[in-house]
């Protein structure tokens, strides 16, 4: 039986047990993670004959201007369907998405996980399924084998970082990482970055630390000055490269290359997959940087649709054109 559950109706103990046992398991889908990045999230669940969860679909819903909609949360690249078996029937995807379709007229984006294979046709009017992707590096082989798969440029930049006498330090202070991002990255992001995004990162980091699944690493020069930082999540056989930034003076020192190589070296030969949380190829510099470590693309199905009334769509489009005009961007 398929049921749609509001947030207060969810059995989070049962939910997390399913996620932990699921072949598709990811830290993003744990209840405490969703509570941080998508407060009030809802879900579609499939129940077995005893009323226990056997398949789930988290629904990261929000509300604005009185309109409820679904949007992929920050710091949560994948969600989708999680089950107690590796193979999920097409009709389960269809039924679960139908529950979402009946309750939400607007889905900005629902990014499924790399283990989900959605039907080519969803049989729901106006629903589109596209593909995004991330980059994975399987660490099961030894470090020397992994290192040989680095590109020539990556090997060269790693040697430069080593010659710069950088050291790697564990930390529990995320503020330098946020400061680097504000100073060097946020101005290049369309629309800017609201302060709430940084506060959300702080909250998420605290939740990760409390559960012992975070590693925050910085590179430091000989004077002890931090110049690059990377935050990783280790859970369920995956190492997620969730956030990173570098100071301007640190970018030339290749600190992030040194940290990533350090993680690869440390976990090489173990049953981990490093998820670079790569952006799409529309950010080619970042994509190629991550790919230079020998990682390979993994597709992420993305569901979108907009069934809002025409007047609401026109208002939304006009608002976006005004914002772009005020920022001096092409319409």
UniProtKB/TrEMBL annotation:
Swiss-Prot/TrEMBL keywords: Acyltransferase, Transferase
Domain BioF2-like acetyltransferase: 153-273
Stored Gene3D superfamilies: 3.40.630.30
Keyword Cell division in record: no
Top EC class for this record: transferase
This enzyme's EC code(s): 2.3.1.-
MF-aspect GO terms: acyltransferase activity
Taxonomy, superkingdom: Bacteria
Protein name, per record: GNAT family N-acetyltransferase
Organism: Pontibacter ruber
Phylogenetic lineage: Bacteria, Pseudomonadati, Bacteroidota, Cytophagia, Cytophagales
